[in-house]
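subagent[fold] <- orchestrator: predict structure for attached chain, return tokens only, no commentary.
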Amino acid sequence: MTFRNIAFVAADTEAATTALKRLESRYPHVAPDDADAVVALGGDGVMLETLHHFIGRNVPIYGMNRGTVGFLMNAYREYALLDRLERAQTVTLHPLRMIARQTDGQMVEALAINEVSLLRETRQAAKIRVRVDGKVRLDELICDGILVSTPAGSTAYNLSAHGPIIPLGGGILALTPISAFRPRRWRGALLPHLATVGFEIREADKRPVSAVADYTEVRDVAEVTVREDRSIGLTLMFDPEHNLEERIIAEQFLP
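subagent[fold] -> orchestrator:
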């Protein structure tokens, strides 16, 4: 695929801004809102921010790592960028839509590319009732929190919470507890990607809980519903030798 209008965006770090200046001096470019492809420079954080910024346009995003982990990024090289873009493989992601009702009745919606997580706000453990497609699966989970992860996000917070890594084509979501106290042996579940997950906060006034969709936080929630939004597609581009599917599989064999 040939892209005529390329834009560059960068994280606010020395490595990323230096790369931005060098690439903009080397390649013709346009403003991000006029682009038909965007090159994001930084780490996974700037990739998420860029995807959220263009979430209504489905502009392909090609990341180059000028951050730390860079799981969603390609290797940084200044030469042959246009050829790399033409040869890049694409993957389409669908975000999670979170609908949260706060204890004062206010409703908040947000989208998450990685995960929606519920987290206790105070020293006291949260008590959460878990529903899947309207059926109560756990009447009371006592925990620090719980999260719903997409396959793309399964190697992020979900992995650090001992959740499973999910191949992109798996068609499933991960439901993963965070420091569960009761039931002690429950380690989470794998759900069909079309499932609707509902959380009800028990004793919400005494044990307040926040809900976070990527980096959008909603404090003092009473109920939260999470489902995959198939009406929204997000396109990432990867060098053929470093495609996202291969990275997710390889992550499962790291020491």
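orchestrator: received. Logging for downstream: The mean pLDDT is 94. The domain at 96-228 is CATH 2.60.200.30 (Tumour Suppressor Smad4).
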